[in-house]
Specification:
Low-confidence stretches: 1-5
Order of helices and strands: HHEEHEEEHEHEHHEHEHEEHE
Shape: elongated
Strand content: 15-25%
Distance between the termini: 42 Å
Radius of gyration: 23 Å
CATH class of the largest domain: Alpha Beta
Length: 288
């Protein structure tokens, strides 16, 4: 399995094929009516707003699926400005017209995620220690690899890609299994060196989890003041060193500055994937 945020190329090939089938590009009645024969052309994809580019690998896969040649594409993670060409393709104008919306959709969504992540990363700069911005599994179905990669392009971390990566004991697990028993059972199945992370909401739970041997704590839906108190209690108990503390639950780029001083190591933000506004692009077609 490729590391989260660095999906294998064929992952984006599959995504591109699915998107093209969804749009029924082979049944484009308008293009078929107007252009009965091939017309050599170039298609230029231009940014319409400042932001962080992402999604080019999937966009290139869509273009190649219709036998278009990708002449140039600037790297994902690049800051783009209005009017800047980010992708150039050449080939039959009919193919460019058919793939246009798929290419733009992929770029707009992924770049929106990358741009929202970059905004969140900027909001953490003055904190000590500086919070790392992480993704979550709150992704749109079928788009997880695209969105996880976009978070990385925006300067964040992918966190675990799916349930097979890492052990995270959530509150619903703890409704069935006690904290100490959960750590003990998880440790037996963990890979060598693999950390056990546990979701906690109170000082008492945090202390129990740390004493039981958890390597990381997830403070879920915890206001800044309460999170600061949990970190302080762990420090006073001599349990903070070597323990990773992650914040999660309702944290947005706008609210992130409130958490800079609580003493945590990372914050995971579902909003950067499930609620990021699209970054607009458009395609300009020219005959050759």
């Amino acid at each position: 399995m490729a590391p989260a945020g660095r999906a294998r190329p064929r992952t984006f090939d599959r995504l591109a094929r699915t998107a093209l089938l969804e749009d029924r590009v082979r049944q484009d009645r308008t293009t078929r009516a107007l252009l009965p024969r091939a017309v050599p052309a170039v298609g230029l994809v231009l940014a319409q707003r400042r932001g962080i580019l992402s999604g080019t690998e999937a966009a290139k896969a869509a273009a190649r699926a219709l036998d278009l040649k990708v002449v140039r594409a600037i790297p994902d993670g690049t800051s783009v400005r209005p009017g800047q060409v980010v992708v150039e393709v050449r080939g039959d104008a009919r193919a460019i017209l058919r793939v246009e919306r798929t290419v733009l959709n992929l770029l707009m969504h992924a770049s929106g995620v990358a741009t929202a992540t970059a905004r969140a990363v900027r909001a953490t700069r003055s904190g000590r220690p500086r919070l790392r911005v992480l993704a979550t599994r709150k992704t749109l179905p079928g788009l997880r690899d695209l969105e996880k990669a976009a978070v990385v392009h925006g300067g964040g971390g992918p966190h675990r890609r799916d349930l097979s990566e890492g052990i995270l004991v959530k509150s619903n697990h703890l409704a069935l299994v006690g904290i100490e028993e959960a750590v003990r059972k998880a440790r037996r199945l963990a890979r060598p060196g693999e950390p056990i992370e546990m979701e906690v909401r109170t000082i008492a739970e945090a202390l129990r989890a740390a004493h039981a041997g958890a390597d990381a704590l997830l403070l879920d839906n915890t206001p800044p003041r309460r999170a600061r108190g949990i970190v302080r209690a762990l420090t006073e108990a001599g349990l903070r060193r070597g323990l990773t503390i992650e914040l999660s639950g309702g944290i947005t780029p706008e609210r992130l500055p409130r958490y800079r001083g609580v003493g945590a190591d990372a914050a995971s933000l579902g909003s950067v994937t499930h609620s990021a506004p699209a970054l607009p692009f458009h395609l300009r077609l020219r005959p050759l």
